Amino acid sequence: MLNVGLIGLGKMGKYHLNLYSDISDVKLMGICDANPDLVNELSEKTGVQGYTNYKEMFPYVDAVTIAAPTRFHYEIAKDCLLAGKHLLVEKPITTNYDHARELFDIAISKNLVLHIGHVERFNGAVQEIRKITENPRFVETKRVAQFNPNFKADSIVLDLMIHDIDIVLNLIGSPVKAIQAVGSKVHTDLADFASVNIAFENDAVANLYVSRMSQIKERFMTVYEDNALYKLDFTTQDINIYRQGQTQQTFSEKELRYKNEFIQERLFVYKENPLKSEIMHFINCVTGKTKRTVTVEHDLLSLNVALKTDELLRKGIFGQVEL
């Protein structure tokens, strides 16, 4: 039985709390938040011991999930690792590359699992498209949502676009050559929508669009290869594939006609709750049943690209940066 603690009881923390309650071979030994009223409310509701000081949980847990605000991740994660606890940290791990590198170094030195919560990695459609694509040449992503004033201090790149950055880097699998970014402020002091181009050394290109100004929620990705186009819906976990069919050409004295056909396929995707799949993967890594799906270097690259992109947008002008 793996004993687990949960730090942070906001929106994401509550998702983790609900899922841990349904997973066998895991016992949630403690929940923690800086808000004592919230801790008491959820502790009474779930029967799990509540804390406002996360260090008081350490004697009772083997692993910890951190779903606190990002600005607290580094301090909490470092304390947990130094106490010998395996960690699942919601993305982004930190807003500082050197801090992230330090945390991974500590985890490696202590033989601990440090997993970053990139939940879209465990989306069934994302896992499937990695298997069927061979040489992506151009990738487009669109991730838009309604404005939420509770998150107005958060970077749109580190909050939303980092999902797509992580997926694209893994899918294309080539070193990044350059990043271009443009965005604009509307509701906040940070960019509220942005368009980002990432150029890769193998000449592939990705265009990522993100917005928190939409009236509807949309999350899509389109992958272009030489002979196929793949459209992925992150929400429904569906994939549609379009391939070139026959081209017919007819002549007459008065006209010339072309007829292009395409073949459409809808791929069967095994659909599971991505967050539950991610938690199960973390647990299996801790218990030695499986190994992490990505390397430390990939985790750090995703963060670095996100931070560089965010830096460009904060400058408020169209700009480019090389890695």
UniProtKB/TrEMBL annotation:
Pfam families, A to Z: GFO_IDH_MocA (PF01408), GFO_IDH_MocA_C3 (PF22725)
Keyword presence, Cell division: no
Domain Gfo/Idh/MocA-like oxidoreductase N-terminal: 2-118
Methyltransferase in keyword set: no
InterPro entries found in the cross-reference section: Gfo/Idh/MocA-like_OxRdtase_N (IPR000683), Gfo/Idh/MocA_Oxidoreductases (IPR051450), GFO_IDH_MocA-like_dom (IPR055170), NAD(P)-bd_dom_sf (IPR036291)
Gene Ontology MF terms in the entry: nucleotide binding; oxidoreductase activity
Domain annotation GFO/IDH/MocA-like oxidoreductase: ranges: 126-224
The entry's keywords: Oxidoreductase
Superkingdom assignment: Bacteria
Record-listed E.C. numbers: 1.1.1.369
PANTHER family registered for this protein in UniProt: BILIVERDIN REDUCTASE A
Protein's UniProt name: Inositol 2-dehydrogenase/D-chiro-inositol 3-dehydrogenase
Organism: Mucispirillum schaedleri ASF457
Organism taxonomic ancestry: Bacteria, Pseudomonadati, Deferribacterota, Deferribacteres, Deferribacterales
